[in-house]
Design brief:
Helix 2 packs across helix 13 and helix 3 packs antiparallel against helix 10. The protein folds into 2 domains: about 45 residues, no CATH class; about 230 residues, MetI-like (MetI-like fold), CATH 1.10.3720.10. The chain is an all-alpha fold.
Length: about 290
């Protein structure tokens, strides 16, 4: 049986640390929740301040809203897929490399995050335009006869978003793979499992927590992207964030913009719950395995 004195001491210690964190929790909670409740209230008001459900009826009956929703999901899913395809092999290579080499490569991977997102986005605009470095190089090599449409479209926005999110995906995946006991992998190899079988049946299941966390970061973060689609999309790519901005700047419609904001928040909450459920299922599967 547990010692009652020890339990009281542990309870007292937990209360002490909660007390230390309480001021920060209150400040962060109020700062985060107050604007959300204000936007929620605005979404149910007319311009004259009267209560109404018309803002939600207007946005849900508009084809532009559903088009923006589809564009948002397409951008987020496409960014996630590319980050998984590029990030998992990179994280695996880093986890298998010497720690000193891995740390140096990680610094290179993190370098883009030290630069303003606006600067990086306009950098991609210079690289991807019709007379930019990418098209000029491909034409010089004889690969293309006409410049490729790499900017002011979905492709340009996707490239910029992937460039921003890839480091944020690699970090948790690399951390999870680095924590895997090498003896487990060597045991699987000694029992006849080849490289790809070890990856599929040992490494990826054990790194499922990092994979889920990285995927959640990428997908949820990109749902609210604004600058990159606005610049690299050239007005042709309009996710919900851009529609919110145009609803405010063009029509000064706080009610409609707030309703769109709550729709985006609902989408984020649904995505968060889905990833949390996936992570829990993956953890239970690894535990029982």
């Amino acid at each position: 049986m547990s010692d009652p004195g020890l339990l009281r001491e542990q309870r007292r210690e937990r209360l002490f640390f909660v007390g230390l964190a309480w001021p920060a929790i209150v400040i962060v909670g109020v700062s985060a929740m107050a604007p959300i409740f204000w936007i929620l209230g605005q979404s149910f008001q007319t311009v004259a301040g009267e209560a109404t459900l018309g803002n939600y009826d207007k946005i849900l009956s508009s084809g532009l809203t559903w088009s923006s929703l589809g564009t948002t999901l397409a951008l987020s899913l496409s960014t996630l897929i590319i980050c998984v395809v590029l990030g998992v092999p990179l994280a695996l290579a880093l986890a298998s490399a010497n720690r000193r080499v891995a740390n140096r490569v990680l610094i290179l991977i993190m370098l883009p995050l030290w630069t303003s997102i606006l600067v990086r986005t306009y950098g991609w605009l210079v690289l991807l335009r019709r007379d930019g470095l990418v098209n000029s190089t491909l034409a010089w090599l004889g690969v293309i006869d006409q410049p490729l449409p790499l900017v002011y479209n979905f492709t340009g926005a996707l490239i910029g978003m992937t460039h921003y999110m890839l480091p944020l995906f690699v970090l948790p995946v690399y951390a999870a793979m680095r924590d895997i006991d090498g003896n487990v992998v060597r045991a699987a190899a000694s029992l006849g499992a080849g490289f790809w079988r070890c990856v599929a049946t040992v490494i990826l299941p054990l790194a499922s927590g990092g994979l889920t966390s990285g995927s959640m970061i990428v997908f949820i973060y990109t749902l609210g992207f604004f600058i990159t689609p606005a610049v690299l999309g050239g007005g042709k790519v309009n996710p919900i964030a851009i529609r919110i901005e145009r609803t405010l700047s063009t029509f000064q419609d706080w009610g409609g913009a707030s309703a769109l904001g709550m729709l985006l928040l609902l989408l984020i909450l649904i995505a968060g719950c889905m990833f949390a459920a996936i992570r829990r299922l993956a953890r239970e599967k690894v535990h029982y395995a």
